[in-house]
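Key result, reporting period 2: structure in, sequence out.
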């Protein structure tokens, strides 16, 4: 849905990402753009919008892009249409400052949400019932999702594709868009961006090496030796550049790899735990519960189910 003051990049992201997703050679989503009036203005262009807000009454997913000026009032028709969509169970996702529009419906009260880090304190001030987290790229509450600024809208849309269609389709869309399927860290890495350095302290090469060697035992001293840093310097660089400790980043990377293997292979949970570097299936389950809020088997059933080829389907999954 769009409105006067819509941020064009936030509108383009879902159109591009969801519009590229295919299932069995056919478009996976019927993407529509709607507004209260036939014409809306952004900071740079005027848009002729083909559909009205009545489309929200039948949409499975509603995307709310950002607004260019936080002082701009949210049109009453927009709020009414959004509240009705939420009430009937539609999935609603905001991009960047679109969180202010979604928050104005009251649907985010009592929930965790995010927006662009520059606007996070204002969102918290206006809506104290919302737990605003400025450090993440997006927050997924199932039917309600919010994302950080600009490029985080792409991350959110890829996440929706992965939720709906699985990792393989999402990876194909990511390749078409020339972007990673998932980015390490969160929005925290962008809040106080460090200037480029030429003294060899960038973690890019280390993160790439870690990603390729997740199955190894990787205590902090081993990582520090690989980075040619002291453990104290390494920990500081991790906080500055990825917004997490080395152990937290490593656990998240291993869980992400486990998610991919659960979605795309029939390997047993015990084997996946070894493949990604967790000491046991018990540790994998604990980390999965902490970071994904579900179990590996439940995740596999939700994301693959009987879409997994029969030759790869684990014995524990039944049609």
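The corresponding designed sequence is given below.
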């Amino acid at each position: 849905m769009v409105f006067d003051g819509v941020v064009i990049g936030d509108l383009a992201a879902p159109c591009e990402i969801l519009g590229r997703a295919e299932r069995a050679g056919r478009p996976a989503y019927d993407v529509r753009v709607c507004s209260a009036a036939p014409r809306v203005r952004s900071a740079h262009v005027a848009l002729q919008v083909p559909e009205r807000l009545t489309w929200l009454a039948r949409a499975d997913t509603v995307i709310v892009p950002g607004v260019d000026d936080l002082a701009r009032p949210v049109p009453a028709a927009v709020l009414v249409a959004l509240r009705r969509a939420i009430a009937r169970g539609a999935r609603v996702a905001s991009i960047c400052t679109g969180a202010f529009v979604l928050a104005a419906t009251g649907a985010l009260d009592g929930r965790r949400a995010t927006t662009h880090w520059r606007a996070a304190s204002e969102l918290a001030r206006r809506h104290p019932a919302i737990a605003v987290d400025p450090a993440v790229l997006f927050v997924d509450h199932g039917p309600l999702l919010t994302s950080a600024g600009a490029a985080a809208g792409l991350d959110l849309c890829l996440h929706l594709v992965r939720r709906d269609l699985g990792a393989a389709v999402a990876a194909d869309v990511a390749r078409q868009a020339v972007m990673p399927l998932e980015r390490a860290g969160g929005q925290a890495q962008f809040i106080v961006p460090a200037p480029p350095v030429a003294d060899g302290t960038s973690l890019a090469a280390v993160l790439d090496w870690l990603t390729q060697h997740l199955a190894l035992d990787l205590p902090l001293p081993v990582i520090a030796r690989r980075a040619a840093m002291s453990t104290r310097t390494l920990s500081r660089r991790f906080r500055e550049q990825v917004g997490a400790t080395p152990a937290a980043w490593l656990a998240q990377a291993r869980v992400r790899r486990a998610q991919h293997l659960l979605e795309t292979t029939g390997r047993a949970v015990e084997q996946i735990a070894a493949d990604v570097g967790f000491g046991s299936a018990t540790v994998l389950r604990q980390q999965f519960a902490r970071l994904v809020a579900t179990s590996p088997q439940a995740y596999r059933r939700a994301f693959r189910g009987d879409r997994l080829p029969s030759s790869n389907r684990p014995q524990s999954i039944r049609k």
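The radius of gyration is 21 Å. The longest strand covers residues 61-64. This case is discussed further under Risks and Mitigation.
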